[in-house]
Amino acid sequence: MSRIGKMPIPIPQGVTVNILDGNVVEVKGPKGALKKEFHPEMKIEIVDNAIVVKRNSDKPFYKALHGTTRALLNNMVVGVTKGFSKRLIINEKTYKGEVKGRKVQFELGYSHPILMDIPEGLNVTIEGQVITVSGIDKEAVGAFAQKIRHLRKVDPYKVKGIIYEGEKIRRKAGKTVASGK
């Protein structure tokens, strides 16, 4: 069995898990509700106030799917109880970001400002040069943070751009001046 896949997911107080027809799982908690459909070969059950995932085959594809299904279910439970957030840093003093209603406007050194719609279920805050994307769906939070990051990729020579908090950027050395010999 998969080491991750065989671990049960405890259901905390205030969280309800419903397994609908087939492998559609709905998780409701204090922060909201999530619903997701899983592969039909994975058997999802609730046993002793915990979610258990089982598989029918020992083929490599199903072994990998077993662990992935369990991890996605765990992310759903954690999302509706604690939520997820990603922090990005605008690594240049002249670049700016501002939240306007359900849109985010960035001025990143281009000839025009960039407007982005904030997806449903996500919150974006900008304090100085720090952008925080938060929500209950880990996949949506990560995808939107990545979209923001790709608006201005980091220049390896000057280290200007948008980076994740704690991300290490490999700096490149600039050109050296040739001696006049």
Automatic annotation (TrEMBL):
InterPro entries registered for this protein in UniProt: Ribosomal_uL6-like, Ribosomal_uL6-like_a/b-dom_sf, Ribosomal_uL6_a/b-dom, Ribosomal_uL6_bac-type
This protein's UniProt keywords: Ribonucleoprotein, Ribosomal protein, RNA-binding, rRNA-binding
Transmembrane segments: none
Occurrences of domain Large ribosomal subunit protein uL6 alpha-beta (ranges): 11-83, 98-164
GO biological process entries: cytoplasmic translation
Keyword Ribosomal protein: yes
GO MF annotation list: rRNA binding; structural constituent of ribosome
Pfam families reported in the protein's UniProt record: Ribosomal_L6 (PF00347)
Family note: Belongs to the universal ribosomal protein uL6 family.
PANTHER family referenced in this protein's UniProt entry, alphabetically: 60S/50S RIBOSOMAL PROTEIN L6/L9 (PTHR11655), LARGE RIBOSOMAL SUBUNIT PROTEIN UL6M (PTHR11655:SF14)
Function of the protein: This protein binds to the 23S rRNA, and is important in its secondary structure. It is located near the subunit interface in the base of the L7/L12 stalk, and near the tRNA binding site of the peptidyltransferase center.
Subunit structure: Part of the 50S ribosomal subunit.
NCBIfam families tied to this protein: L6_bact
Protein name: Large ribosomal subunit protein uL6
Organism: Caldisericum exile (strain DSM 21853 / NBRC 104410 / AZM16c01)
Organism lineage: Bacteria, Pseudomonadati, Caldisericota/Cryosericota group, Caldisericota, Caldisericia
